[in-house]
Amino acid sequence: MTTLATGSDTLTRDALAVLQPGFDGTTAPDWVRRRLGEGLASVALFGRNVVTEEQVTALTAELRAERDDLLVAIDEESGDVTRLDVRTGSSFPGNHALGAVDDPDLTRGVARELGRRLAACGVNFDWAPSADVNANPDNPVIGVRSFGADTALVARHTAAWVEGLQSTGVAACTKHFPGHGDTNVDSHHAVPRIDVDADTLYERELPPFRAAIAAGTRAVMSAHILVPALDPDRPGTLSRRILTELLRGELGYRGLIVTDGMEMRAISGTYGLEHGVVLAIAAGADAICVGGGLCDEATVLKLRDALVSAVRSGELPEERLADAAARVRALARWTAEAKSGAETAVPDPEIGLIAACRALTVTRAGSVAPVTEPVHVAQFNPAPNIAVGDETPWGVAAELRRLLPGSTAGSFSGPDAGRQALAAAGGRRIVAVVRDEHRHAWMGAALDTLLTARPDTVVVEMGVPQAPPRGALHIATHGAARVCGVAAAEAVVGG
């Protein structure tokens, strides 16, 4: 492997400082320890790094033994996108549920309790909240990660979430600038394009980010989306017009700008990972998120060397790299100074379930017979998007088995899902669990089959409740967090 520097000079230390790599394993790898001594200032945790909170606490302690001012980042939105609760489902409802309740004090309290838990584990930087306005209900990657489709609602809850989280000394990272809500492509796979005029962008997409900035968000994450009204040539992450002129200049933002995952195909598949990283820093980003997919030492060294080479060739101004590295270190200092907030935070372990119960929307079709006997839970599984992943359990089956012993369950998908679910149910009453019925024709057809044969079927929608409510009892949870499933199951039995 060819390297360009020994790891001791200022340029190389700055190049390492702007990287926020993930890594494999549940203990601190030797290579990460080495690079922390050479200038690496941040690491990122993903689901693969998490077994228990005690294990995460031990892991972050190992890392901080090498560098006590380390930024430990995590992609913990709560709700459907969870890393801390990746194996069980989140203890907190996500943004869409909080938006459905529309109580900013509740949102602030949920984020405060999440921040307290993260801080207790040694995590001090959270890539959340999503400030995207869910303008396109068919969006394949945002959906319940958004507080809703109303700009003012999203703005007030984004601000409340930022305030709650940061009161514990954990830095918030408001995303995905300049707004990922009106897209029909997942940037994990390709470059989404938002073809709306500048007035719409300023009136609909930007107010939540303005609110987050006013609330003091310590970081903003860029989106890998092409917005021709702002920049016809480059996606947000690589656009000086969007990051430097708009976010820094017009919106007056002074904190850290971090990229979305650079290995996502919207960037790596179009520009290449190394060149994309150079372009992002040049455009105004300060920190590079990489490693949602596996990241190893070779990748970190390639990115470090690409940045050093770009400075030496004149492609990247040295002062731009130095400024970016200084912002990373400044955020680390803020977290160290603010961590006393976590130490004084009063635990509120029930707030997640309380919020999930308040978020339920229950629709009854006439007089509904109570559910008192064992049921068959038919869960209709869409393909998960990469942000959510496929590791985290969801649904109501486990809780209904507890509440109604003897209940059975099955998972179904595809054009024959309804008939298969009907056959599996036997004589039991059916609880059908869907996720974004409006986005999946096969799912709607499956419900048609069930409701024609068994009109007493209970329907639980755990995605965006865009389709009209149907079923003897219809329960919209506004998200698929574990606590949303608990709340829904209790409503089934109590309804």
Automatic annotation (TrEMBL):
Belongs to the glycosyl hydrolase 3 family. The keyword Membrane does not apply. GO terms for molecular function: hydrolase activity, hydrolyzing O-glycosyl compounds. SUPFAM superfamilies: (Trans)glycosidases. One of its GO terms (biological process) is peptidoglycan turnover. Keywords: Glycosidase, Hydrolase. Residues 39-329 form the Glycoside hydrolase family 3 N-terminal domain. It comes from Streptomyces diastatochromogenes. The keyword Cytoplasm does not apply. This is Sugar hydrolase. Pfam families: Glyco_hydro_3.
